[in-house]
Amino acid sequence: MTLLETRALTARYGDFQALFGVDIALQAGQTVAIIGANGAGKTTLMRSIAGVLRNAPEQVLFEGRSVGALPADEITALGIAMVPEGRRLFPSLSVEENLLIGAYGRKVQGHWGLEAVYGLFPILRERRLNPGTALSGGQQQMVAIGRALMSNPRVLLCDEISLGLAPVVIRDIYAALPRIKEAGASVVLVEQDIGQAMKVSDHVYCMMEGRVTLSGSPASLSRAAIHDAYFGAHA
Amino acid sequence: MNWIDTIAQGVLLGGLYALFAAGLSLVFGIMRLVNLAHGDLIVMGAYLILLVVSVTGINPFLAALIAMPLMFALGWGLQRVVLNRVLGPDILPPLLVTFGLSIVVQNVLLQGFSADSQRVGAGALETASVDLGVVTLGVMPLLTFASAIAVIVCLNWVFYRTSLGRAFRATSDDPVTASLMGIKPQGIFAMATGIAMIVVTIAALYLGMRANFDPTIGPARLIYAFEAVIIGGLGSLWGTLAGGVIIGVAQTLGAAINPEWQILAGHIAFLVVLLIRPRGLFPRAFD
Amino acid sequence: MAYRVETRTTASSLAAVAGIVLIGVLIAFPAFAGRGLIQDLFFILTMLVLAQFWNLLAGYGGLVSVGQQAFVGLGGYAMFGAAILWGWDPVAALVLSGVAALLVAVPTAFFAFRLAGAYFAIGTWVVAEVVRLLVAQWKAVGGGTGTSLPREASGDMWGQAAIEALFGVRSAAARDILAYWLALALCVATIGGIYWLLRTKRGLALAAVRDNAQAARAVGVDAGAMKWVVFLTAAFGTGLAGGLIYLQKGRISPDAAFSVTDWTAYVIFIVVIGGIGTIEGPIIGVLVFFLLQSFFADYGSIYLMALGAIGIVIMLFAPRGLWGLFSDKTGIQLFPIRRRLTGGRLAKSKE
Predict the structure, then answer these.
(1) Among residues C150, C157, C153, which one has the least CA distance to residue C182?
(2) Which of C114, C123, C312 has its CB closest to that of B101?
(3) ipTM of the complex
(4) Fewest CB atoms within 10 A around its CB: which of A33, A92, A123, A194?
């Protein structure tokens, strides 16, 4: 079943058009990775799905329903949560409060709550009274992921969760992915690390200059094809 | 002149100024909005309480309880319909709109209640006092000060111990990310202004019972409130109380030396603090 | 043909010609206008001066002051003080009006610039209150109740006798004419001076700061220094206007001279309704304000209520004011500041 879909999605910032008709689809229970160079439009795509940027209603479908024009808070209430680029923890909230605020708009009870998140990332329990911004980058990323999970989302959007982190920390964070999926979330990952993206996803979309230039299952894509889609075909 | 008595009166007066200031501080803390109509809204609250008292004949404290939901609704609606539209990086629109609002409120009150000064009668409470040996303190000023402390304790509880308070702080930090949590920033702002108006109603109750008021005294109340907030340091409610006390003590000391110097002394205390500690006595760690 | 950098437009050239004609007509006005009309024009001109300076502060400098009444009052009191205590001719004492405002503006700026954004607004207001309360203690000029210009000062100003002879009017009317001419000169100098300031390199930087403070900083515009220039200029000009206003009124009191409604609220209304951040805006605004004032001022508080409400509605739905609406529709600018490239092959015009 197709859980989430964009159809000919366009987005612009003022005079600058960032997306030119993007089609992606996420099947229930799967993980989709979006790869591409800086400025390819990956983050814009995520912000459009999450409702931070508004679109025409029928450009984003969630469970078959047109949701492109809904604001972010209503998108969250429907069951789409986002881990924003750069983590964006709330500096005046403690770690635990950052997690609790993630449940603010929760409409459904489910697997995730404080205890479940602490089970997933035990270090957060130790740091729970610290201000969110006093943590290391990897721990902050765990808070951001935990915070998004607290709403028990059907779809988890992860924007560049490995950016700026050490490889060992990235491994820890990706180690949580199977349990997140087990608990019922399908995942859209934006990743600059192609290897990482190929390893964890069921389907990959490669974007360049606001368009999808290549898509397919990781096994079906050759290195050369990805290289072309990533940097532009050899002229 | 009895110094201890003067200072004690000043401290208690500071409680009134902290009440004026708490709502202003709350709204500024959450949405970086300075409401120039704040003082006029306090005066409006006093007229509302007066109206309820004169129509129903009930005790002013009960009248304030009736006025609270009305004032909350007014604040909520004001934020929803007008102020949310002008929030943004440019500070000019909210300033000009609330300045316009100040003039509208003042003149609505002038039109409705005339320029005559009024007072909310509180019966025996007005003159009751407690003899503490060293000083004799009025019950009304003591009640005012106690209310200020109660308001600050309640606001801090809401702010730091409730889900709504978390949403206030999160929205204040970063409204876009807050919306990703399912928070509606516009709704949060409306709620904050509504709560500020409940505090305004409490301030209005004491404003009305302690002294005469008329439709034009709002701006001066705004200025005292503003001074208390700045002296205390933005974002700290206990700091705001300290700021109110400093203004109150400066005013009573000034008045004790020469009655014409009362207001002036308060303003000068403010300027001195601003000179020595530009960010106030208890500034927030980050902003 | 070579490229040229120009700011002139057809509309602005026409406006310049019309402006010169208008100034000529206005100078000659007392020859055929009655005293009431002269007083109305005096009111319009002085309010326009105040509005232009507030617009310079808030519209170009981003300094939203609610304390300009401090400088109006100081200007008035400096002139009264010099006339009463030292026997100066009131016209000569006008220089002191500007200087006094300037002197107080320095410490004011020192305090107020510590306050960011919205708090600056109330900070300036506090300073204005302090000045009002201090002046109310100044017994030599009447303390809290105020005073009038002594007869020998108000009846024998420089040029007054000549005006009496020239137009065959009485002393009070001659004072109105004198004040009117001075106001006209001040107004022309103000508009001309602000236009000149905005077209200089520093002024262009100012517009850049207004449009985008961050970008302006990035290209090396010193916003801090410009804030000082703008604040002190506005204080000086506002002080002069204050001196002139009270020269014409002949009577002063702290509550009137430091009135936040008369000298700041009305002025803000004028700028907002006309169009903030333009020179044309306050001109339109003052005319609209004068018309509203003459037709509806008798309604008192209802009138003020309506003014406040109109201001709010304009801010919500047409934040660039009446002139902004007109200029967006037509593209006409009477005081163009932007530099355009003309001549050469790219340009369509045949200049």
Answers:
(1) C157
(2) C312
(3) 0.92
(4) A123
What sign results for the dihedral spanned by CA atoms C134, C138, C141, C145?
A: positive
How far does Cα A196 stand from its chain's mean position?
Answer: 14
Tell me the chain B residues in contact with residue C297 when contact means C-beta distances shorter than 8 Å: none
| CB burial readout A194-233, b (16+ within 10 A) else e | bebbbebbebbbbbbebbbbbbeebeebeeeebebbbeee
* C327/chain B closest Cα distance in angstroms: 20
- Whole-model pTM: value is 0.89
The answer to whether the CB atoms of B96 and C311 lie below 8 A apart is yes
Q: State both tokens at A164.
A: 């700026």
Q: State whether A92 and B177 contact (CB < 8 Å).
A: no
**Is the distance from CB of A211 to CB of A233 less than 8 angstroms?**
no
- The answer to whether A72 contacts B172, with C-beta atoms less than 8 Å apart, is no
Domains along the sequence of chain A with CATH: 2-88+153-231 (3.40.50.300)
CB A90 within 8 A of CB A82: no
Question: For C135-155, what is each residue's pLDDT tens digit?
Answer: 999 998 888 889 998 877 777
Element (H, E) at A214: strand A211-216
Six-digit token string for A135: 């943590």
Distance between CA atoms of residues B231 and B278, nearest Å: 8
A68's CB contacts (< 8 A; 6+ apart) are A9, A48, A54, A55, A56, A57, A58, A59, A60
* Residue B183, amino acid: I
Indicate the number of domains in chain C: 1
Q: What is the dihedral of CA B191, B195, B196, B201, to 10 degrees?
A: 140
| Selected residue of C262, C305, C314 to mutate for chain B interface (largest B Cβ count, 10 A) | C305
Q: Using CA coordinates, name the residue in chain A closest to B187.
A: A73
Instruction: Indicate yes or no: CB of B107 within 8 angstroms of CB of C304.
Output: yes
Q: Residues C54-89: pLDDT tens digits?
A: 999 998 888 889 999 999 999 999 999 999 999 899
In a domain, C303, yes or no: no
Q: Give the tens place of pLDDT for each residue, A79-125.
A: 999 999 999 999 999 999 999 999 998 777 888 999 999 999 999 99
Let me know if C85 is exposed, middle or buried by CB neighbors in 10 A (0-12, 13-18, 19+).
exposed
> What stretches of chain B show up as alpha helix (H) in DSSP?
3-31, 38-56, 60-78, 84-86, 92-113, 139-161, 163-173, 175-180, 185-210, 218-232, 237-257, 262-276
- Average model confidence (pLDDT) across chain C: 86
Distances B225 to B14, B36, B172, B237 between C-alpha atoms, Å = 10, 11, 21, 12
